[in-house]
Amino acid sequence: MIYTPLTRRALKLCFEAHKDQTDKTGLPYVFHPFHLAEQMTDEDTTIAALLHDVAEDTDTTLEDLAGMGFPAPVLQALALLTHNDAVPYMEYVAALKHDPIARAVKLADLRHNSDTTRLDHVDEWTRARLDKYARAIRLLEEP
Questions:
Q1: 54 near 27, Cβ under 8 Å?
Q2: CA nearest neighbour of 113 among 58, 66, 52
Q3: What span, in angstroms and rounded, lies between the C-alpha atoms of 72 and 133?
Q4: What three-state secondary structure class fits 90?
Q5: Over the stretch 27-71, which tens digit does the pLDDT of each residue have?
Q6: C-alpha span between 16 and 39 (Å, rounded)
Q7: Structure pTM?
Q8: Cα(92)–Cα(122) distance, rounded to whole angstroms?
Q9: Which of 104, 129, 118 has the alpha carbon at shortest distance from 39?
């Protein structure tokens, strides 16, 4: 992970926002954004990886994040990464494809969410989700 004043601010916010949440297997959810952030190569993608689910899964809004001083390119990527349930999933993925920050974070997110070694079991619902993620990865990797 890249440590700068802004990534440290994002790291603290990420932990505070997700500290009481767990993933589907009961592990602390915060491990997921930390894992993504470890794969990023610059400040903006690291911040976006840490905060990619904050607006979607907590009470913190994109406006709150803007007020905390995060840079415009990160805020734009976070807006793209925040899935509105009214938008079909593949349209959501296609909309973020051309933003380099959002694309890098979403690819890492999809790959981590597709890692079946994280799961206790793989059922039909999980297989369908994995298929959806595989389609999304292919879309994001297209030139």
A1: no
A2: 52
A3: 28
A4: helix
A5: 999 999 999 999 999 999 999 999 999 999 999 999 999 999 999
A6: 21
A7: 0.95
A8: 25
A9: 104
